[in-house]
Design brief:
about 180 residues, globular, two-stranded parallel ribbon, single chain, DNA-binding, 6 helices, Arc Repressor Mutant, subunit A, MGMT, 6 strands, alpha/beta
């Protein structure tokens, strides 16, 4: 594969250290396309392979890429407690249909420091009985942290699941002041 796919799409990526461990950030000309938790060597390599397969191009490690600069800065500011909202162009091409609809509603309607129930979010997209499907959409989120799936919790007060692990979800909610600081 070359560095540009069939449609001329270029994918660049880097790994950023954060308070929840290394995050892989990947971008296209359309915006941030993927955020991957726990981006140690094996996880990072699998994520880059998935991106190569999806876009038909070999992603390029480019920590100094202008396509990534703003995302890196905003992620670092978020984890430093200096940013409450992300203002980035997003490439939604890794997700479609109901999942995309739910994630867009989440990104636009659940601000820093607040949470929403799975069922409540389902209602916001006109599918009040689709709490389980909302959970599946959260698990399929290609842009965690930036599209804040950690802010979706069980209606009975439980924390719910999380693709990055429950410890990571607790740390993100603590960073935003929703939960007390984790004791681990």
């Amino acid at each position: 594969m070359d560095s540009q796919g069939q449609d001329g799409q270029r994918v660049v990526w880097t790994v950023v250290g954060t308070g929840i461990g290394p995050l892989l950030l990947a971008a296209t000309k359309d915006g941030l396309v993927n955020v991957v938790f726990h981006a140690t060597d094996a996880v990072r390599d699998r994520a880059v392979e998935r991106l190569a397969s999806r876009f038909g191009t070999e992603p390029v490690e480019a920590p100094d890429s202008p396509l990534l600069a703003e995302a890196i800065g905003q992620v670092e500011a978020y984890f430093a407690g200096e940013r409450r909202a992300f203002d980035l162009p997003l490439d939604w091409s890794l997700i479609s249909g109901f999942n995309r609809q739910v994630l867009r509603a989440l990104a636009d309607g659940v601000p820093y420091g607040s949470v929403v129930g799975y069922g409540d979010l389902a209602g916001r997209v006109g599918q009040p009985g689709a709490a389980q499907a909302v959970g599946m959409a959260m698990g399929a989120n290609p842009l965690p942290v930036v599209v804040p799936c950690h802010r979706v919790v069980e209606s009975g007060g439980g924390i719910g699941g999380f693709g990055g692990g429950l410890e990571t979800k607790r740390k993100l909610l603590a960073l935003e002041g929703v939960l007390p600081e984790p004791l681990f």
